[in-house]
Amino acid sequence: GADPPHKVSARDALLERASSALIGGAVNQILWIVLPPLLAAGVLVTLFQLWFSRRLQIRVRAITAAIDRLNGGDLSGRLPDHYRDEIGHLARMINQFIAQLESVFREVHSAAERTRDAAEGISRSIGSVTDSAKVQTEKFFHVSSAVEQMGASIHDTASNAGSAAQRADGALDMVMRGNDEGKLTISALGR
Fold first, then answer.
1. What is the dihedral of CA 123, 126, 131, 133, to 10 degrees?
2. What b-and-e string marks burial along 87-99, b requiring 16 or more CB atoms within 10 Å of the CB?
3. Residues sharing a CB contact under 8 Å with residue 81, sequence separation 6 or more, in sequence order
4. Per-residue pLDDT of the chain (191 residues; tens, 9 = 90+)
5. Is 119 exposed, middle or buried, given 0-12, 13-18 or 19+ CB atoms closer than 10 A?
6. Which of 27, 30, 7 is nearest to 19 (CA)?
7. Handedness of CA 107, 113, 118, 119 (dihedral sign)
8. For the chain, how big is the Rg over CA atoms in Å?
9. Is this model's pTM higher than 0.90 or not?
10. What gap in Å lies between CA 136 and CA 166, rounded to an integer?
11. Rounded to the nearest 5 degrees, what angle is found at the Cα of 51, between the Cα atoms of 47 and 56?
């Protein structure tokens, strides 16, 4: 005999319970085999992410500190560029740009100093010429008053010397203004 379809025999119930127990045991065994490595992998991934995040924060802080120094006008600072990744490459490129900019600023400063020195030299030379012209004018007027009988010719010569002195004074005034402008330019470039 076959059992009717709606009745479950005791043997079938026992087999079903035994199968369930076997399946449950296999599932537990599989969970114990799979779950610890998954948990370990999760812990490793989390630890790696924490390490990477910390490392990235340290690098970003170092870059930010270097940028703050640059922003303050200190072009001698450089970004940390010893890493062989994209951030390191970017830092090396920025450092090259800063070095070129620093070189340009040095050249401009040097040129401004040379210009100032040249303007001061010209000013001294013109001052010397003016002083010499004044001395010559004074001597000429002294000789002119002593030899008044040579009237007409000496008078013309004295008049010309006076005009030369005025032109020299005008030139000195122009140089002094130029010197002042040069000093203002040097001061502005120095800032």
1. -170
2. beeebeebbeebe
3. 88, 91, 92, 95
4. 455 555 668 888 888 898 999 999 999 999 899 999 999 999 999 999 999 999 889 888 988 888 888 888 888 888 888 888 888 898 899 889 888 988 998 899 999 999 999 988 888 888 888 888 888 888 877 766 666 666 666 677 778 888 888 888 888 888 888 888 888 888 888 76
5. buried
6. 27
7. positive
8. 48
9. no
10. 13
11. 145
Q: Position 188: which residue type? A: A
Q: Report DSSP letters for 150-189, one per residue.
A: GHHHHHHHHHHHHHHHHHHHHHHHHHHHHHHHHHHHHHHH
